[in-house]
Amino acid sequence: xxxxxxxxxxxxxxxxxxxxxxxxxxxxxxxxxxxxxxxxxxxxxxxxxxxxxxxxxxxxxxxxxxxxxxxxxxxxxxxxxx
Length: 82
Description:
Layout: H1 2-18, H2 26-68, H3 72-80
């Protein structure tokens, strides 16, 4: 079993060693950097949107619970099944 894993890893290493790596010029590095930055900014915006949605759902749920007229014990019982 270990010999099979070793052979598999060696095969992967051999494949990596056959790849011809090319150096990137300054322009390509800058392009990749800008793409990475844009992706990061979009991800941050997405996470902010998710957070805003979560806060809105939380507030809505709290308002519904408060308007339900249930006492604390009844509310606790209601959430035990979740």
